[in-house]
From TrEMBL:
Destroys superoxide anion radicals which are normally produced within the cells and which are toxic to biological systems. Destroys radicals which are normally produced within the cells and which are toxic to biological systems. This is Superoxide dismutase. One of its GO terms (cellular component) is mitochondrial matrix. It catalyses: 2 superoxide + 2 H(+) = H2O2 + O2. Gene3D superfamilies: Fe,Mn superoxide dismutase (SOD) domain, Iron/manganese superoxide dismutase, C-terminal domain. Its EC number is 1.15.1.1. It is found in: Mitochondrion matrix. Keywords: Manganese, Metal-binding, Mitochondrion, Oxidoreductase, Transit peptide. Its cofactor is Mn(2+). One of its GO terms (molecular function) is manganese ion binding.
């Protein structure tokens, strides 16, 4: 596990920039409270781990691993999430900003519309807290839909292209129990330009400064 101290990344847009798909209230709380808490807990766990390692306390190290994995996953997943959203008025919110990815999606699922329907169904099929992902298998190059529980990151060998947060804190204040409307409206603020960049890049390009943290959990 990396020993660096992590900090909350700035959003590439204002808190109200994704309205009406995602409210300013949700974005503010989600970013400054929920994401910040994962970072705070990750840094605390890393400090405790350093102490345990110095003392050669293997039992304490093992107990800390789950906390580190959970909070590191929360930091990584949310960082990817903010980056793959954009105001609906931006040219990047149009699928035309991702010609190569859309072509691959259409080849895999028949059309972009069928893919979106399938992904939305995947999101709504999640039981409890978790994430829905469009990933690319790094060996075969195939596109796949998958989910992860709680703050688990995508499995090894799968490169995340699009991640959607389906924890209640991501939508409840605005949509209440209507998850379907949240899952439908979030397509209006997907950053296809970023998705295209992820599709064409390797792991380092997707995870950036968090690549080391991702490889350690």
């Amino acid at each position: 596990m990396a020993s660096a101290k992590y900090s909350l990344p700035s959003l590439p847009y204002a808190y109200d920039a994704l309205e009406p798909s995602i409210s300013a209230q949700i974005m503010t709380l989600h970013h400054t409270k929920h994401h910040q808490t994962y970072i705070n807990n990750l840094n605390a766990a890393l400090a405790s781990q350093a102490t345990a390692t110095a003392k050669n306390d293997i039992v304490a190290s093992l107990h800390l691993q789950n906390a580190m994995n959970f909070n590191a996953g929360g930091h990584i997943n949310h960082t990817l999430f903010w980056e793959n959203l954009v105001p609906a008025s931006s040219p990047s919110a149009q699928p035309t900003a991702a010609p190569k990815l859309v072509a691959a999606i259409s080849s895999r699922w028949g059309s972009l519309e069928k893919f979106q329907e399938k992904f939305t169904a995947t999101l709504l099929g999640l039981k409890g807290s978790g994430w829905g992902w469009l990933v690319q298998d790094t060996e075969t190059g195939n596109l796949e839909l998958t989910t992860s529980k709680d703050q688990d990151i995508v499995p090894a060998g799968k490169k995340p292209i699009l991640g959607i947060d389906m924890w209640e804190h991501a939508y409840y204040l605005q949509y209440l129990n209507d998850k379907a409307s949240y899952a439908k409206n979030i397509w209006k603020v997907v950053n296809w330009k970023v998705l295209e960049e992820r599709y064409e890049s390797g792991f380092e390009g997707v995870f950036g400064p968090l690549a080391g943290l991702r490889s350690s959990i």
